Amino acid sequence: MMRRQEDGARGQCKIDKICRATNTSFVSNPINMPASLSLPVSPLCLHTTPTLHKKLTTPYSLSIRSSAQKPSSSDPKPTTTKPSSWVSPDWVTSLTRSLNFAKDDSNIPIATAKLDDVSELLGGALFLPLFKWMIRYGPIYRLAAGPRDFVVVSDPAIAKHVLRNYGKYAKGLVAEVSEFLFGSGFAIAEGQLWTVGNVCIYGFLYCKLFVFKLLEFGIGLKCSNALLLEARASLRLAPQIVEARAQRLDVSSTQLRDDLLSMLVAGHETTGSVLTWTTYLLSKDPSSLKKAQEEVDRVLQGRPPTYEDIKNLKFLTRCINESLRLYPHPPVLLRRAQVPDVLPGNYKVNAGQDIMISVYNIHHSAQVWERAEEFVPERFDLDDPVPNETNTDFRFIPFSGGPRKCVGDQFALMEAIVALAIFLQHMNFELVPDQNISMTTGATIHTTNGLYMKVSQRQTESAFASSSSSLQLNVAMRLKSL
Ligand code: HEM
Q1: Is residue 442 part of a domain?
Q2: Within a domain: 81
Q3: Any idea which positions bind heme (predicted)?
C-alpha cells in the first residue's frame, strides 16, 4: 500500500539557515512577486503557502523578439520590461557564492553573473540570461542565485546522463515548490510513491483526462485557469467515487486525487502553448504555411482527420516538432544529485547539488543545431521517425527523457496535430500588425498579452468540397495565453 510520507525537513530551506547564521531576517514583498505556480528557482517559493500563492496574480513579463522572427515593419516591437525582483538577492547571492564556491574542485566554470542578472533570473524569463551565460561560459557552468547555487547544463550528453540516472538524481527543488499544488501526485513524487504501481493507474486517469481534454477543445484551443480550478473542485466534490476507485487500486484516496491532479495540471497549458507558438511561427513563414496547408488538403481531402491520417501529416508534424524545439515547455528541467557523481567531461557534483538542465539552451545552441535560431521544419527528415530524445541522442528533449519523461507525449502530439490540421484546413490567418508579443515563463513559455491573429475562412475546393458556404468571416481571434 502506498501512503504519503510526511517530510518534516521540507519546510526548511537554506535561506532560513543563512538568516539564522547571519542573525538577519528575510523580508519579502509579495506585492511585487512574480506570478507563477512553477518558478522553480524562486527561493521564496520554498516559503510559499497556498494562501500566499493566491496573492500571486500579477504576471511577470519580459517582452522580446523571438529568435525565429524575421524583422519587418509590422513586427511586434521588441520591448524589454525590466523585471523588478520581489526579493533583493544581492547579499544572499554573494553569501552563497562565498560559502559554496570557495573550495570548488568541480572543474565547472563559475559564472560571474551580475547581481542584476541574477535577480532577473529569480523573477523573470529565466531561460534568457541562462542562454547569455552559456555563450560566455560554455555548456556547463555554476551559478549562485539567491540562497542556492545551480549547475546549469546546456549539453546533450550531460543532460542524458542526469535524466537517465533517475535515482542518482531526483526532482529536488521542483518537487518542493510544487508540493502545495500537486500534493503527493506522481508528477513530483519521489521514490516509493513514484512507482510502476502508481503508473499503472494511468489507464483510468487517461480516460478521465480525455473527457477533460475534449472539453478543452470545446471551449477553445486551451482551457482556462477557471476551468482547471473547477476540475480540481469537482475532484473534491466526488469523494465517494474517488474512495471507491482508490480501494480497488489499493491506494489512499488522497493519493489517487493527487495523481489525478498531476495528470490534469501536467497536461494543462502545454499543448495550448505549443499551438500558440506553432501558429505564430507559421504566420511568420508563409512558404511553410502554404506547404502545411497543401499537405492537409491532400491528405484529408476536405474531411475531418482520422487516426490513420495522423502519420501522413508529416510536414505538419515537423512544424510542431520545430516549434517545440524553439519554444520548449518547460524551458528548464530541475534535478538534485542524491549522491556524489562525476558528469561526462569529468565534472564533479556533490550530493545535494541542484542541477538545471536548460532545454532552451540545448535547443538553441549553435554547437548542437545548424541554423539553430531559425524555424526550419525540414531539419527533421520527413521520412525519419518522429524526433525524440533517443533518436536525436538528447539533442531534442521537449518531453524530457529517462524514467521521468512526460507520460503524455504521444497524446499531446496527437491532439496538437489534429487541432492544427483542422485549423489549417478551414482557416487562413495572419498576425495582427503592431502588437506587442511578449513572453513570460511559468511551466511553459507563454505570451503575456495573448497573440492576435486576423482569421478568415479558407476557400479551397478540397477543404470545402461539401460546403456551400462562401461567407467570408473576418474575425480577430485571440489565441489566449494564460
Ligand atoms: C506538448 C505538450 C507537453 C509537453 C511539452 C510536456 C512536457 C513535459 C516534460 C518536459 C515533462 C518532464 C519534466 C521533468 O523531466 O522534470 C513532463 C512530465 C509529465 N507530463 Fe507532460 N508535457 C506535455 C503534455 C502532457 C499531457 C497532455 C499530459 C497528460 C496526459 C502530460 C502529463 C505529464 C505527467 C504526468 C508528467 C510527470 C511524469 C513523471 O514525473 O513521471 N504531459 N511533461
Answers
A1: no
A2: yes
A3: 406
Closest CA to 444 of 320, 270, 221: 270
pTM above 0.80, yes or no: no
Q: How far apart are CA 317 and CA 355, in angstroms?
A: 31
Distance from C-alpha of 322 to C-alpha of 380, rounded to nearest angstrom = 8
Q: Determine, yes or no, domain membership for 387.
A: yes
In total, how many domains does the chain have?
1
How far does residue 410's CA lie from ligand 1's centre (Å)?
Answer: 10
Residue nearest to atom 43 of ligand 1 (CA): 406
Distance CA 374, CA 343 (A): 30
Cα–Cα distance measured from residue 253 to residue 338, given in angstroms and rounded to the nearest whole number:
30
245 Cβ closer than 6 Å to some ligand 1 atom = no
**Which residue, chain included where needed, has cell 512544424?**
319
CB 235 within 8 A of CB 40: no
39 lines ligand 1 (CB under 6 A): no
34 lines ligand 1 (CB under 6 A): no
Residues 121, 129: Cα–Cα separation, whole Å: 7
Q: Answer whether 209 contacts ligand 1 (Cβ < 6 A).
A: yes
Residue 65 Cα, ligand 1 centroid: separation in angstroms? Answer: 27
DSSP 135-165: HHH-SEEEEEETTEEEEEE--HHHHHHHHH-
477 forms beta bridges with: 453
**What is the distance in A from the centroid of ligand 1 to the CA of 147?**
28
Give the residue numbers spanning the domain of 393.
8-271+322-415
CA atoms within 13 A on the CB side of 373: 8
pLDDT tens, residue by residue, 436-470: 887 777 667 877 778 899 999 997 655 444 443 33
Domain with residue 64: its CATH number is: 1.10.630
Instruction: Please give the DSSP secondary-structure letter assigned to residue 13.
Output: -
- Confidence check on the interface: ipTM exceeds 0.85, yes or no: yes
Please classify residue 133 by burial: count the beta carbons closer than 10 Å to its beta carbon, then call 0-12 exposed, 13-18 middle and 19+ buried.
buried
Taking the CA of residue 403 as reference, the ligand 1 atom at the shortest distance is 41
Mutate to test the pocket of ligand 1, among 38, 258, 406 (most ligand atoms within 8 A of CB): 406
CA distances, 169 to each of 175, 240, 364 (Å) = 12, 37, 25
Distance from Cα 265 to the centre of ligand 1, integer Å = 9
